[in-house]
Amino acid sequence: MSILIVDDSTLARAVLSDILMGNGYDDIVMKSSAKEAIEYILKNSCGSPSDVSIEVDLILMDGIMPEIEGIEACRLIRNIEGMADIPIIMVTGKTDIKTLQDAFDAGANDYITKPFNKLELLARVRAALNLKYEIDKRKDRERELKELNKILQELSSIDGLTGVANRRRFDETLEIEFKRAVRNNKKLSIIMADIDFFKEYNDTYGHQAGDDCLKKIASVLNDIVKRPGDLVARYGGEEFVVILPDTDEQGAKNIALLAKNNVENLKIPHEKSRVGEHVTISLGVSTLTEDIATRHQLLKEADIALYESKKSGRNCVHV
Ligand code: GH3
Ligand code: MG
Ligand code: MG
Ligand code: MG
Questions:
Q1: Mutate which of 202, 263, 278 to test ligand 1's pocket (most atoms within 8 Å of Cβ)?
Q2: Contact at 8 Å (CB) between 73 and 83?
């Protein structure tokens, strides 16, 4: 662990470092003023703005120094990003209550009075470093927990079978995109897609083959939508939805037609399909207009269009 000694006296620095080095603390950095110490700290901090880590585990701070005194230095250091938890021990000749109070108020954790006792110094250093160790451990655990939460968050919004977004994520995203489109007067379209005669497919080829077919269709949809804000989701059993922000009716229709064609071109055999010999999908497109007041209405319109596609022979797109 790294100890930073800040003292304007060459002799004091030498005595302190000798004692510490003689007792197994071999990572000692010495600075002769608060200004140099602060420069050193700033130069040795790394990490993101919200999670700065600094290569200093303990500071031994002289009380009386020219220019910036020890107590003021404590206060300045405590205000540096990432320095809130680094233990600071004041090494001071002044022991009146007022000075000690000021030191603690400025952020010091402990103090040693000059001339100091070697054993007392080592005991206080050990205690401060133990404290720092516990703080570091707690921070590591917090970091791990944050990571884990992020992963859980991701997992809870993904459909386990197909890997596209699940219904929950879809609902959340549509709510956000709907509000954004209304607020900014932007276009917004959605596509609903449903596999044709999928019950018969399962009955003919088995549930496992049905699952594989769902995966392939999800992947076709995913390959088509390319813009960062677009979202493909599994809406339910064999139904998918696509959210297309900033996309008008014609744009959404083009994407739906491409999806229809690409699924057909997979040429997944489906002998019981009454459309043809392969798996196909039917699609419905809806686009935000002044008549649509809620996202539920937008969905309903897509569902109605999809129903039109089913009624008019399947393997087609309606808007
Ligand atoms: P239509 O062309 O009118 O859409 O007919 P359909 O048979 O596709 O529609 P229906 O709603 O009657 O049947 C949907 C089928 O989708 C029934 C169900 O077994 C199947 N299905 C739903 N979820 C899954 C799934 O996760 N895996 C598999 N293998 N099949 C599923
Ligand atoms: Mg001094
Ligand atoms: Mg269905
Ligand atoms: Mg179906």
A1: 202
A2: no
